[in-house]
Amino acid sequence: MSTPQEHPSGRVIPITPAPADGEGERVSLYQAHQKIYPRSVQGVFAQWRWLMVAITQLVFYGLPWIEWGQRQAVLFDLGARRFYIFGLVLYPQDFIYLTALLVISALSLFLFTAVAGRLWCGFACPQTVYSEIFIWIERQFEGDRSARLRLDAAPLSLTKLARKSGKQLAWLVLSLWTGFSFVGYFTPIRELTASILSLGFGPWEMFWILFYSLATYGNAGFMREQVCKYMCPYARFQSAMFDKDTLIVTYDQARGEPRGARSKKADPQALGLGACVDCTLCVQVCPTGIDIRKGLQYECIGCGACADVCDSVMDKVGYARGLVKFSTQNAVDHGWTWTQTLRRIARPRVLIYTAVLWAIILGGGLSLWLRTPFKVDIERDRATLARIVEGGQIENVYRLQIMNAAEQALIFKLHAQGLPGLRLVGGSEVQVDATESRWVSVQLRVPYDAASPGSHPIHFNIDATDPSGQALGHLKEKTVFLMPR
Amino acid sequence: MSDFISNFWHLYVAGLTLVSIIACLALLWFSGKAKAMTANDNTTGHVWDGDLREMNNPLPRWWVGLFIITIIFAFIYLAMYPGAGSFTGKFGWSSAGQYDAEVAKGQAQVAPLYAKFSGMPPEEVSKDPQALAIGDRLFMNNCAQCHGSDARGSKGFPNLADADWLYGGTPDAIKATLVQGRAGNMPPMAAAVGTPDDVRNVAHYVLSLSKSPHDSLRAALGKSKYGACAACHGMDGKGNHAMGAPNLTDDIWLHGWGENAIVNIINNGKVNQMPAQADKLTEAQIHVLASYVWGLSNKTVASAAK
Hints:
heterodimer; A: alpha+beta; Immunoglobulin-like; four-stranded antiparallel beta sheet; 17 helices; B: mainly alpha; Cytochrome Bc1 Complex, Chain D, domain 2; two-stranded antiparallel ribbon; 14 helices; 6 strands; 8% strand; elongated
């Protein structure tokens, strides 16, 4: 066996066990779950968070109920492979737009994270939003943090049972409604509503309603911060977007320390104390249960609850606000003002994210705008390469799939070009009903001496008109014509 | 049917599977007992490169519960489904069995649809838009591979959309073709015809039957030698449906047009086969498909229905 030293290229980093200050201890490899009882909080960021809760949930629960003409405005009909989004009908062939949407979402996440840290996590992520709603329900039944702590410690009583089961019931109802709304994006929600009473959902509808309900109930009711700490992949890679100019929740250590309780009348300087009164409210309100005074930690979702509560405490004791606040590493290190901090937003990382994001938004928007309301896929016939027909003409066969993405019947006129004497046999007009697709067999012929043996590029020109004769668009699709030897 | 060539492999796979699962369980149990040394600043106390430290971020205990669920799931799964060697599981599931069950389910679903058409004469079926749509799909899946997606065939594969039929164009004849298949066989006839020049002359005579371009002198010479062909193709060259002998007078050339193609066939003969569909398609499907194909070559009927 060879030791690492025998390899000149293999560099070995020695590990030195060096127990830091004080005695170490032997601990389990697993961490017991400690339930977190976040205290309710008021303030600017709490208001923002509730606003985001309201907006996201109005959209989520409300959107399936909006009608558009004769159908649901937003409906992802997986069975028929059509996505309806207001006036837009998307086919599987429009998958590129989903890609664009995902790229836009990812870049937006990069941009927001580079500028202001885990904004998404703290304000808009469904995990945060539903946890917030579920904790609000919990508070209605069991009271705020201290009351909940007392209730959990108390022996089982009739009141405790009533409060606990009331909360569970409310959670379940909300979860089921959430699952129902979710499925309402895939099965028309009005049909779903009609089948509530009879419980006549299809097996898949039933499964997904229950599955999504269970996920909501479990994640928002019980898992909460565990999802962010242990399961969420975005939480981990968002730190790659951080730099020293990213806004993060910071504790002003220089101003706060040494912390300590004091009388409101006492002069902290005389006592040798900093501004932190060590009320621990910042720890009590934290939904992930961390102490922000230890500095930035990976559990911090950037919700700003500690900043809100600290500001209210500073107001009470008559100190300046902002002991815990959104700030950047550079601003803290150099003592920058808010304006100086904001000026650093215009840095290459942010500008590049912004430029790429806008390029894709504009590109995607433009391509949606210029999109023809129909599609044609051309397949050469798989059996027949070429055949000789009357008069020695050469015939090739094509299968055209014509997809009408418009919500009215369209008439398609077909022409073929690319070889001398190339002509279409039979009728060149095809009608396709609204949002339907149709396969058509088409034969093209050329005189026997039109081209040399082999493959020749040709193209189909397809013009779409509505029944009144108004032109709606034009497509040019490439294919080949084979001449036999 | 066993997937293993000897019983050893069955025991090997089953044993390995079970031992692995039990080893996972044992690992969980031991790691639950084990303790790790930590420093009290929440690091593991390990230092690299002088200042790099490793935070102590233990896995949450509930995560272990997930591992245990997967192990319980594994045991239940192995009891129900094949996985432990050649043990087939309580459900006796197999992919072939699932396929058969789904095909049977699909057939049962469409049976009422086909039942409607089974009682109808083919001429009626070929006018029904629903039957046409079914027929089109059956054709695309089962026939278009050879006869082309427009049913017009190509060299060696007959055109089904014209009025020329090797074995007759009645619905019953088409159905018989679908059920039992057809084996067309033209023997090499050069010896019976005579010299190579005779063969060439007969080819020109055959061309003249359909008024195709030909050498009339050679055709006149070939006429006397045509007797060798007449047994099947008829004295008038109009072919014979009973034996699938093509009509030579209609200017339709399944195996190629022109003097060389005909000479080649007389010299070498031709074997051409249409495979039987009876074990691929149900009787009801063949009924709809035969009606659809009959409709293709009787366009006036079919187009009146559209």
